[in-house]
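REQUEST FORM: STRUCTURE PREDICTION
Request ID: SP-0412
Submitted by: Lab K.M.
Chain count: 1
Length (residues): 276
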Amino acid sequence: MKYDNINYITSEPLIAEVKQELKSYFEAGAISEVLIPSFIDQALRKLKVLALRPEEAIIRFENYKSELPNDFYLLDYALSYESNVFWETGLQTYSGYWYKNIAASCEGCSDNIETFEQISVVGPGYKISLKVPKWIRVYFDSSSLCVEGCDNLRVASTDIIKINQHKKVSANFIEGCVYLRYFSRPVDDYGIPMIPEVLEVEEYIKSYLKYKFFEQMWHSVMDESTKQVTDKLTYYKREQLEKLQAAYNYLMTKSKQQIADSIVRTRNRFSKFHIR
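STATUS: Completed
RESULT:
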């Protein structure tokens, strides 16, 4: 499920609020801040929602291998190009110049995907010019790293790439350039994952952080304070589960427009059989 109508924000204010509430524990050194990004990532995964941002890049294959961008998370689609490298003096920028020609579609390209007919990428001392876009097939073992319904998983193409978990890519061709449209995992300036700007989700994140902090303390205390920490751990465990359910219910609630779209899709499924 996609949450295109939801804004994503930094969780720094929520973290500050929790740290203020548990100030005495932080000052005593009973709680560590190191795992906060991991805790927030865990909470988002429990909600089955991740903040994803569309990106684009060109990767160059040499000796059957290449590497994905550092912020790569999921592939949207990929096109292979014929490429020419022009060496010129005075070029010192890494910025790319992208030229689109939507009107003229390439052979075999889907109508609902914008096609980059020609791309020029400027680097330090050189310029790569790409032309003649062609669909590229992604090996089925890489389906977990592609968006749902990715066209590259089912196109008929002699050019094939395989995406590995460690952001390495292998191909069945020796060299060439591939244009990628992909999704990245946006993080804030502190390296913490962005979260949906939804009150129920924000309340759940705060509750989950408190639960994980007391879980940390429960594993470390060895004196008479154990019962007090255990009681609070039990309380926050129950609370974060309740808020998880509330946040999940909000995100999974269909809007009126989504319900209407679903009805239309159901009707259109049988239109080719002339069923009314």
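NOTES: Confidence is low (pLDDT under 50) at residues 93-99, 101-106, 269-276.
Reviewed by: T.R.
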